Protein: DoxX family membrane protein
Organism: Streptomyces piniterrae
Amino acid sequence: MQTIWLSGAEWFAVLRIGLGLWWLESWRHKDKKSWFAGGGITWAAGVAAKHRWPVVRTSFEQVVKPHPRLMAHLVAWAELALGLGLVAGFLTPVALAAGLVLNLVYLVLMIHDWAEQGQNLMMALISATALLAMSWQTWSLDSAWGLFR
């Protein structure tokens, strides 16, 4: 593959690292005190309560709402782990697949908010592309340690 400046594999590594930085920004901008007290989940409960798909409302009520602090921690620490894993290239296929799933969950939950839709669709597309291009082959701990050959 011919490209300008970097090789194709290096461009995919740039994409992976950029996605990792995006996840780190998602983690960084949260008001941690409010978020870990369950504030983010309370906000999401309001969104889920008005959702057009009954399965989303029911799933949120049964799985997320009973455990707001646990879910708040799960979401925040998952975003941090995804960001660090993608930037460092550590367990990259796992991070890309998990990020893809998390973005799809966000996408389904936020079906009414077009601004969120754009961000989640873009992040999901980058995750899928970086996963299929095996972006961990360049500039990653996975490559340095011979993981996922």
About this structure: The two ends are 20 Å apart (CA to CA). The chain has a mean pLDDT of 93.
